[in-house]
Amino acid sequence: MNEIELKDLESNILTRRDVMRILKKSQPTIWKWVRLGILREHRIGRRGFYYKHELLEAIEKNNIPLEKKERVKAAAHG
Fold it and tell me: How far is CA 2 from CA 24, 38, 54, 60, in A?
């Protein structure tokens, strides 16, 4: 799965890899945004995960750019 569309994700829980693919950002960038409080990561042991609704809120609040088609799909969930 190379591209992920937010509307196709039935689960409300996203992996770090999901978030990287959605935002088209590298792992160090995602870690940096977590440290800066831009994204909120939850952990179970060593595994990090993200709630879809929190990711959508972070995208909107921080004006994180998305591809045009992803922007439309994210707005549909808002």
Answer: 10, 24, 22, 23
Q: What is the pLDDT along the chain (78 residues), one digit of tens a residue?
A: 344 555 555 678 999 999 999 999 999 999 999 999 999 999 989 888 999 999 999 999 998 887 654 544 555 555
Main-chain phi, psi angles of 3, to 5 degrees:
-120, 140
Q: Give which of 26, 35, 30 is closest to 59, Cα–Cα.
A: 30
Distances (CA, A) of 32 to 7, 35, 53, 70: 26, 5, 20, 23
Q: Measuring CA to CA, how many Å separate 49 from each of 33, 52, 72?
A: 14, 10, 24
| Lookup result for tokens 């190379």 | 2
Residue matched to tokens 């993200």: 50
Which DSSP category does 7 fall into? Answer: G
